[in-house]
Amino acid sequence: MKKLIIASVLTLFPLLSSAKALYLADFAKAPQTQKVYSALIAQAGLPAWVKQGGTGSAASEVVLSGVRYQVLSGCKPHSCASQQIALIYSPQTHKGYAVYSQFDEESATQSLRWLNGGQELPIDIRTVLFARLSGSLENHPDSFNY
């Protein structure tokens, strides 16, 4: 009996781990989200790598005021520290917001461009986006659910 239970659990294990992680490059190409992403970056005059999503990390999830969001990011290939983009998107509301970061090593300054598609950008959204850029969201994921 014990062997049967273990075999059953091991059989189900691949199904439990088969969920594919979402990356910014996937988000930028997926039919259901591509329009949202394109609208955010279209008029910003950003580098070409941004359109494809760049080199990314798997999405994180946060809940703000009862609304569930996916938080994604990408960076310039082979130069992550110099240029990054972070995006927050709600599958419930179909709204997205983003921030583009450029770091100048010479002056040691970071410039941020908030991309909100003409929508107001709530402070909690800004906080989560900056936390994604800085790594705080990954280091303290439970600290960003408000």
From TrEMBL:
The keyword Chloroplast does not apply. Keywords: Signal. It holds the Pfam family Ivy. The keyword Signal applies. Residues 1-19 form the signal peptide. It comes from the Bacteria. This is C-lysozyme inhibitor. It comes from Izhakiella australiensis.
